[in-house]
C-alpha cells in the first residue's frame, strides 16, 4: 500500500525546487570577488538615516537599502557586521569587509588607503529655526548654535562672529534650541529631515537647506558621502559605482530617499570631489 504524500512535503519540495531555479537563473551584473563567496559583507554602525543595525541583525537606512539593491543585482546576500566607526577604515583595509557604510565623507586622506565609491549624497548645511530661515545672512544678530568640529564652523564664525555658540554634541545643540536659549541651529539637512518624518523630532521647527553663500564653503560645495572599499579590489569598486549609477537611472535611489523623508535633490551630488 502506498503511503499518501502530505501537502506539506509537496509544498516543501516545490519551494526547494523554486529556490534552486532562482539561484541558477540569477545572473550577476558584474564579476568580482567578495570576502565571503555569495555574500556582500558590510562593516557598519548606527547613524540614522544612513544606516541602522539592531541586535537582531535588522539592517536599515538609506545606505542599507541601496546596498540591498546592489546585492540583488549581483546575486549576493547582504551580511552586515557591527563595527565601531573608529575601526571601520582598518576593518575594510584589512579585507574583512567588502564595504564600509556609515555616511562617510569622501576625503583625500581616505582615498589614499581605500577605494571610495561614486558620491551617494551631499550633506547639506541646514538651518533649524521656527521662522524657516534659509540663508546665512538672515542669521546675523541672532543667537546661533552648531556642533564643534563640523566643517562649516570656521567659516560661520568668520561671518557671524561671537554669536555662534559651539556644542559638544547634536543632542546638546537640539536641547538648547528647543528651550529657546538659541534662535537657530546649523546642522546637517539629512539627519533633521529624517528625524522629523520618522520620530517626530524637532517639533515646531522648520529645517531648510541654506542657500549657497560663498563665505561659507559648505553651503556652496557640501561634503559628499560614499562607501568605503578595499584598495585591492578594483573590480568590486567598478561594479559598485555602476550599480549606484543604475539605482539613480532607474529611480530606485529617489524612492529610497523618499521613504526616509529626504529630498531627492540630496542625491544630486555632482562630480566626485574631496571634502575641504
TrEMBL record:
User: What keyword terms does UniProt attach to this protein?
Assistant: Signal
User: Is Metal-binding set as a keyword in this record?
Assistant: no
Q: Which Pfam families match?
A: SBP_bac_3
Please list the residue ranges annotated as the Solute-binding protein family 3/N-terminal domain: 39-264
InterPro entries tied to this protein: Solute-binding_3/MltF_N (IPR001638)
Determine the domain of life of the protein's source.
Answer: Bacteria
On whether Signal is a keyword of this UniProt record, the answer is yes
Give the signal peptide, or none: 1-23
Q: Which PANTHER family match?
A: ARGININE-BINDING EXTRACELLULAR PROTEIN ARTP, MEMBRANE-BOUND LYTIC MUREIN TRANSGLYCOSYLASE F
Q: What protein is this chain from?
A: Transporter substrate-binding domain-containing protein
Q: Which source organism?
A: Paraburkholderia acidiphila
Ranked from the top, the taxonomy reads:
Bacteria, Pseudomonadati, Pseudomonadota, Betaproteobacteria, Burkholderiales
Amino acid at each position: 500500500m502506498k503511503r499518501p504524500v502530505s501537502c506539506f512535503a509537496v509544498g516543501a519540495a516545490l519551494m526547494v525546487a523554486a529556490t534552486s531555479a532562482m539561484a541558477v537563473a540569477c545572473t550577476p551584473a558584474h564579476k568580482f570577488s567578495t570576502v565571503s563567496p555569495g555574500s556582500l559583507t558590510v562593516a557598519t554602525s548606527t547613524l540614522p538615516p544612513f544606516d541602522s543595525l539592531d541586535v537582531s541583525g535588522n539592517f536599515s537606512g538609506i545606505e542599507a537599502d541601496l546596498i540591498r539593491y546592489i546585492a540583488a543585482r549581483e546575486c549576493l546576500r547582504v551580511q552586515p557586521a557591527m563595527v565601531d566607526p573608529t575601526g571601520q577604515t582598518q576593518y575594510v583595509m584589512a579585507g574583512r569587509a567588502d564595504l564600509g557604510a556609515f555616511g562617510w565623507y569622501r576625503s583625500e586622506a581616505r582615498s589614499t588607503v581605500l577605494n571610495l565609491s561614486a558620491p551617494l549624497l551631499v550633506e547639506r548645511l541646514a538651518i533649524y529655526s521656527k521662522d524657516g530661515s534659509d540663508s546665512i545672512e538672515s542669521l546675523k544678530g541672532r543667537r546661533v548654535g552648531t556642533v564643534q568640529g563640523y566643517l562649516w564652523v570656521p567659516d560661520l564664525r568668520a561671518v557671524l562672529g561671537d554669536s555662534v555658540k559651539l556644542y559638544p554634541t547634536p543632542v546638546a545643540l537640539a536641547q538648547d534650541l528647543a528651550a529657546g536659549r538659541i534662535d537657530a541651529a546649523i546642522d546637517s539637512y539629512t539627519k533633521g529631515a529624517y528625524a522629523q518624518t520618522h520620530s517626530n523630532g524637532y517639533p515646531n521647527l522648520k529645517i531648510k537647506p541654506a542657500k549657497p553663500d560663498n563665505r561659507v564653503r559648505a553651503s556652496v560645495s557640501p561634503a559628499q558621502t560614499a562607501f568605503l572599499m578595499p584598495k585591492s579590489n578594483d573590480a568590486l569598486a567598478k561594479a559598485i559605482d555602476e550599480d549606484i549609477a543604475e539605482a539613480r537611472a532607474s529611480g530606485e535611489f529617489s524612492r529610497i530617499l523618499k521613504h526616509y523623508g529626504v529630498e531627492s535633490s540630496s542625491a544630486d551630488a555632482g562630480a566626485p570631489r574631496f571634502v575641504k
